[in-house]
Each structure stands twice: as structure tokens, then as C-alpha cells.
Amino acid sequence: MGRVVVDVMPKPEILDPQGKAVAGALPRLGFGQFTSVRQGKRFELEVDGPVTQEVLDAAAEAAATVLSNPVIEDVVRVADSEADAAGTIASQGLA
């Protein structure tokens, strides 16, 4: 079974009150190094079998038409979760 991850974020010109609230709380909790926060959405789409380019293309189309509101949101990533997880672990030095 494969899994596709889709990340959707508010467009830069759209206000993000949730992100602003988190940004305000971080310094009070000892995380002063972060200057801005934007909160988005993550979708995980499971498929029978491997994640192929056709599956990624279909996920991108679903993201653009169903999973996001193109007036206020951008689809920022559509990726195979297996490949994505390996890259994330390696980039964090956890592998």
C-alpha cells in the first residue's frame, strides 16, 4: 500500500490568525528563534500498490480541485510519503 502526502498552505497575502497565535506563544514558551508561523493542512492519501507518477498526477489534480481552495490556498507539495520520509530523516541527520 502506498501513501501520498499533500501539503496546502494559505497564500502569502491571506491572513493566518492561527499561525499568528502560535507565533505569539512560541517566545513565551522558550522558542524565541522563530519569527513567523504559517499554519496549513496536510492530507495523506492511501492507494493500493506503489505510488507511481500517475498516482502523483492524480493526487495533484485532486489537491488543486478538491483538497484546497485555490482562491486562498496554494498546494505546496505532493509527494510519495515513503520517499519523503527517507529524505526528511536524512536531512535531519536521523538516518
Automatic annotation (TrEMBL):
Subcellular location field: Cytoplasm
EC number of the protein: 6.3.5.3
Catalysed reactions, as listed in the record: N(2)-formyl-N(1)-(5-phospho-beta-D-ribosyl)glycinamide + L-glutamine + ATP + H2O = 2-formamido-N(1)-(5-O-phospho-beta-D-ribosyl)acetamidine + L-glutamate + ADP + phosphate + H(+)
Enzyme class: ligase
UniProt keyword annotations, A-Z: ATP-binding, Cytoplasm, Ligase, Nucleotide-binding, Purine biosynthesis
One GO MF term attached to the UniProt entry: phosphoribosylformylglycinamidine synthase activity
Pathway as given in its UniProt record: Purine metabolism; IMP biosynthesis via de novo pathway; 5-amino-1-(5-phospho-D-ribosyl)imidazole from N(2)-formyl-N(1)-(5-phospho-D-ribosyl)glycinamide: step 1/2
Matches recorded under SUPFAM superfamilies: PurS-like
UniProt similarity note: Belongs to the PurS family.
Function text: Part of the phosphoribosylformylglycinamidine synthase complex involved in the purines biosynthetic pathway. Catalyzes the ATP-dependent conversion of formylglycinamide ribonucleotide (FGAR) and glutamine to yield formylglycinamidine ribonucleotide (FGAM) and glutamate. The FGAM synthase complex is composed of three subunits. PurQ produces an ammonia molecule by converting glutamine to glutamate. PurL transfers the ammonia molecule to FGAR to form FGAM in an ATP-dependent manner.
Quaternary structure and partners: Part of the FGAM synthase complex composed of 1 PurL, 1 PurQ and 2 PurS subunits.
UniProt protein name: Phosphoribosylformylglycinamidine synthase subunit PurS
Gene: purS
